Automatic annotation (TrEMBL):
The keyword Transmembrane applies. Involved in the import of queuosine (Q) precursors, required for Q precursor salvage. One of its GO terms (cellular component) is plasma membrane. This is Probable queuosine precursor transporter. Its main location: membrane.
Length: 234
């Protein structure tokens, strides 16, 4: 009997991914960047919904992770990492623009003074929120994408739902813990109980939203795969 070595062993086929030549990647990258910038502005406001403590960006941020899942599944880890870095470069640029807007001299009348105070109150904390988001999103989204692609290498095109859910749990936990640790003081959270509430609610909410939208994400992934001419050739 021949030894099962060398060419007699069938190697597992490499996972399929698409190149970024089509317009779909650019559209998703633009949406991810806009969602992230808006989330950073919203996160500077603390929000209390009964016993729940969160921030004003809570309803937007999960969308960024869903888009990250789609990019990772269709285009691979390297492309997803470029999208993450690009989104944050644009977010940092937006923060710089806010700072310039704040320091520019305005009108000295009562309306101008009130407008200046309002802009400082709304956009002044954003650089700290951007720092929190930068560290959290880079860590969480990178881990999320890495786990998803590693799982795809094992399962191929099967069990997409398991890849989406498994990677989201780890990525969202890392993201939420890092972000809340920095952003809590910015929005006025100072005691341990409120901080634990902030972290727990953020993690459970964002993970639950991603789980709820898994069927939609699966449909979007399938739709893009069918329309990407290069899927499987990259």
């Amino acid at each position: 009997m021949p030894s099962p070595t060398g060419s007699s062993i069938l190697s597992k086929p490499a996972p399929r991914f698409a190149s970024i030549g089509s317009p779909y990647f650019g559209i998703m990258l633009a949406v991810m960047a806009v969602v992230l910038i808006l989330s950073n502005i919203g996160a500077s406001k603390g929000v209390v919904l009964g016993p729940i403590i969160t921030d004003g960006g809570f309803f937007l941020f999960p969308l960024a992770y869903i888009l990250g899942d789609v990019l990772s599944e269709v285009y691979g880890f390297k492309v997803a990492r470029k999208a993450i870095i690009t989104s944050f470069a644009l977010s940092v640029f937006a923060s710089l623009c806010y700072w310039i807007i704040i320091v520019l001299p305005g009108f000295n009348d009562d309306y101008g003074t009130a407008k200046q105070a309002a802009i400082e109150g709304a956009l002044g904390p954003v650089p700290l929120i951007v720092l929190a988001s930068l560290l959290a999103f880079l860590a969480g989204q990178t881990i999320n994408s890495w786990i998803l692609v590693k799982m795809k290498a094992r399962t191929g095109e099967k069990t997409l739902w398991a890849r989406l859910m498994g990677s989201s749990v780890v990525g969202e936990f890392v993201d939420t813990l890092i972000f809340c640790s920095i952003a809590a003081s910015v929005i006025g959270i100072t005691d341990a109980g409120s901080f634990a509430n902030y972290v727990l609610v953020g993690f459970v909410y964002k993970t639950a939203v991603e789980f709820l939208f898994v069927p939609v994400t699966v449909l979007v992934v399938g739709w893009i795969k069918k329309r990407e001419p290069s899927y499987g050739a990259a």
